[in-house]
Design brief:
Layout: H1 2-11, H2 13-24, H3 34-64, H4 73-79, H5 87-109, H6 112-119, H7 131-137, E1 143-148, E2 153-164, E3 168-180, E4 186-198, E5 203-206, H8 214-218
Antiparallel strand pairs: 1-2, 1-5, 2-3, 3-4
Keywords: Membrane, Transmembrane, Transmembrane helix
Transmembrane segments: 6-25, 37-65, 85-108
Length: 221
């Protein structure tokens, strides 16, 4: 049983690699749990071998033209654990899993499935991340006002990067002007600033184009 588990782990190693890539470059407030990693690794592992199989069949069809097509040994092993499997197949499936991870991440980040569901009027859910990430990920999210009522300050700047977890939300702005919150008096300017708040405490507004301060001076319009 232990040897079988090791073999299963080797076979689905490509799926794990693809899942790790997808998890690292997608936006989500909560880290993936063991169950989600397991499901993604299983599905992406199968997709890695399926993609490898399609490439192999195309090569056979156009360059070898065999009397009978050959299939990957991994399929026999999945159906019968006593069958042999090839470590070379595991290697090439792992190679295939890297671009697959990027493709899956792109589908998630660009919400292709959600957009398709919305187009078909199946669902109007925007995605899995919260509205903080959704708001800042929008294409027109560029220059913003960040209101800090507790410090009586307003930050005007360009979104450089942002991050969040279950307890805090972080935001980095560049080309920043700091104003008074109540009187809008300009206090000072800095090239870059890091802001951190507890979840839900940020008040962020898009800057209307006619109100741009730094962009008019620096030619970023």
């Amino acid at each position: 049983m232990t040897e079988f588990a090791v073999l299963i782990g080797l076979i689905f190693f490509p799926g794990l690699i693809s899942a790790v890539i997808s998890e690292r470059i997608t936006t989500h407030a909560k880290p993936w749990g063991v169950l989600k990693y397991g499901i993604y690794s299983f599905v992406l592992g199968l997709l890695s071998y399926t993609g490898l199989q399609m490439i192999d069949l195309i090569v056979q069809a156009f360059f070898i033209i065999p009397d009978e097509y050959e299939y990957l040994l991994v399929w026999n092993f999945i159906l019968d654990s006593t069958s042999k499997f090839s470590m070379l197949e595991v290697f090439w499936a792992t190679v295939f899993s890297v671009p697959l991870g990027f493709v899956v991440a792109a589908i998630i980040n660009h919400k292709i499935i959600n957009k398709l569901a919305s187009f078909l009027h199946v669902s109007f859910k925007y995605g899995d991340e919260n509205l903080f990430s959704y708001f800042l990920n929008a294409r027109d999210a560029d220059w913003v006002y960040v209101r800090d009522q507790s410090r009586n300050l307003t930050y005007e700047g360009r979104i450089l990067s942002f991050s969040e977890n279950q307890s805090i939300q972080e935001l980095v702005l560049c080309d920043v002007i700091v104003y008074g919150y109540e009187d809008s008096q300009e206090y000072y300017s800095v090239p870059k600033i890091y802001l951190s708040k507890k979840v839900g405490e940020f008040l962020i507004e898009y800057v209307p184009k006619e109100n741009f301060s730094k962009t008019k001076e620096s030619g970023h319009e």
